[in-house]
Amino acid sequence: MSPQPRTWSLIGSGAAGTAVAALLxxxxxxxxxxxxxxxxxxxxxxxLIGQGRVFAKAEDAAQAAPWLLxxxxxxxxxxxxxxxxxxxxxxxxxxxxxxSGALPASVLKVRPGLRYGSLHPIQTLPTAEEGVALLPGAYxxxxxxxxxxxxxxxxxxxxxxxxxKVPSAGKPLYHAAMAMASNHLTALAAASAEMxxxxxxxRRQALASLQPLMRGTLEALSRRGIPKALTGPVARGDxxxxxxxxxxxxxxxxxxxxxxxxxxxxxLRLARAKGLGAAxxxxxxxxxxxx
Length: 291
Hints:
The chain is of the alpha/beta class. It folds into two domains: 7-167, 3-Layer(aba) Sandwich (Rossmann fold), CATH 3.40.50.720; 181-289. The chain contains 13 helices and eight strands. It has helices at 15-26, 39-49, 58-62, 74-86, 128-134, 149-158, 171-181, 183-199, 203-224, 233-236, 239-252, 257-274, 278-289, and strands at 7-11, 30-35, 53-54, 67-70, 95-98, 115-121, 139-143, 162-165. An eight-stranded mixed β-sheet has the order 3-2-1-4-5-6-7-8. Helix 1 packs parallel to helix 2 (39-49). The N and C termini lie far apart (58 Å). The mean pLDDT is 97.
C-alpha cells in the first residue's frame, strides 16, 4: 500500500468506480466525495464504500479531494473532465484517473499542472458488489505519463491486482482483446445455447450444460496454454463433422453460420500451430470456404 493514504472523490458511481473505491478504502485510503447523475446510485455507492459525502454537483465533489477517480462511462469521460475544468474544480497538483480500457489517459489533460492516468481492471464487473469480490487477483492495465506509472502500479496493487503497463497507442486493440475475451464469450455462449435449444434442449438445460464445458476449457487454457488447449473437430481435421455442423446451422440457424465459420477459421490457425497435417488442414479450409 502507499506510504501515505490517499483521499479520493469518486466522480460517477458505476460498478467499476464503486468497486475500485471500496477496495481502495479497504487498503487504507479515504473517500471524501461521491457524485453521480443519479443520487440514488451515489447513495448506494456510499453504502458499499462505507464513507464519503454525496454531492449534488460534480464540481463540488471534485474539490473535496486531491485524487479523482473518474468512473463515468467511456463516452462521458471527456465531457465530465471538461465540465470540471470549466467549473474551476481542478487544481494544479490534483490527480485525475479514469477507468477506461479504450481511451488514453491523455483525454484528461485539460489544464496545466493536473496529473492524470488510467487504471483498467481486467475483470468482468457486472455489479459493484461482484467487482469487490472479483477484482483482487486480476490484472490491472495501467497507462499514462511515465512519471505517474509507478504510482498507478502501487494503486493497482492496493486493489489486490497485478499491474501491467499498457502502451497508450495500443489501448484500442488492448480493449478489443478484453471485449472479445469477456463480452464476446457471453455472446458465444448465447449462440451455443440457441443451437442447443434448436436441438431440443430447454433454455435452462442449454446454459447449465455449457457452463462446465466452458469452465473446463478455461482450465485447460490455464494448464496447457495456446494452442495445446484446442480440441474438437478442427483440431482433428475432421472435415466431415464440420460439413454436418454447417449443414445443420444452414437449416436451423443460418444467421449463426458466419459466426461459426469465423471461429472455425481461427481454430484452424491454432490447429496448424498445434501440428495438424497439411492435407487435413487443406480439407478443413475447403469446407470453410464452401458456400
